[in-house]
Amino acid sequence: MASLKKERANRIERLRMDFTETEKVILNRRSVRLYTKEAVPEFMVKRILEAGRFAPTGGNCQAWKFVVLRDPELIEAISETVVKICKIFKAIVDYRRPGFFWLRPIANLFIRRNRNDLHPVPFGAITMLAERKFTVWHGASTVILIFMDVRGVGTPRLDCGIAGQNMVIAAHSMGLGTCWVSFCKPAFQYTNKWKKRLDIGYPYKIVSSLAIGWPRGEPEGMVERQTHAVDWFEGGEKRVIY
Amino acid sequence: MGNFGFFEKRHIPKYNDPDEIKPGEIEVDVDKCSGCSICVQACVVSAIVMQAKRPVMLPPGRNECIFCGCCVAICPEGAIRLKSPYRYTGLYKTIGHGEPQPPRL
Prior knowledge:
The complex is a heterodimer. By secondary structure, chain A is α+β, with helices and mostly antiparallel strands.
């Protein structure tokens, strides 16, 4: 018993000095958007899926379906569908183009209906995708589509997110680059083509996707990020820490 | 609660107005920069362009720098520094953000 306590005290001392290995993986990981064409070995992708399989879920419902895409032509073809949809969206809502200021009221209607997908950042990305300034999966050689089982326990969408983050962290610890790509959604929301082609029906619904590949350059390392106000209740009073 | 005014949360900001949607900002150390342009390729939102062999940001209103730090992380010379984070208003008002900090022990 005493040794256990001592062991814990030692551990706390070590923690004060440095981040743990897992923390380093988390803090060093960055979303990679520059990939080489090199293929990811099959066993590595399977290992990544294992990390996802062991994610915690509500009621252990494991309400997901992963679809692995490894054919560049297929990935390219789905991208193409997304680009087409983005072109339509750009035509309807992009009032930032010179001479199109009158589109703003229409765009605002859309934004009010869909404030997440038409947030300023994806709004800009829609235009860039339509203009082919980048591709949906940034040229990654492997893509994992994440679908949720809509009958899951509690918050199945969140469970898919947890599984995905497990996979992303596992992949990073293997030296792979990853990126969460939710721009795959239009290809499954607004058309039936890819649902049919990939044989996805009820009860599955698209959540997001992961791009996985070998990164070009060295996009690693800790960078600065905004701190956030955290309310802290202790000793009968409230503090705000950053 | 106290975060929003009645009209504020109903106001959709004008996306190309830097007063309403202020993008993040980076700073490039021109002396350290070798002009390899990998930051331009790495930039998520294509907010960086090369000008006279040095990266410069597009002016506010034409970029959506999201302060992700991709350029900072990928720069082999360590020549890029994050300067000021984004600040949105109206419906997308930035709430509860403090000063940027690296990971703290």
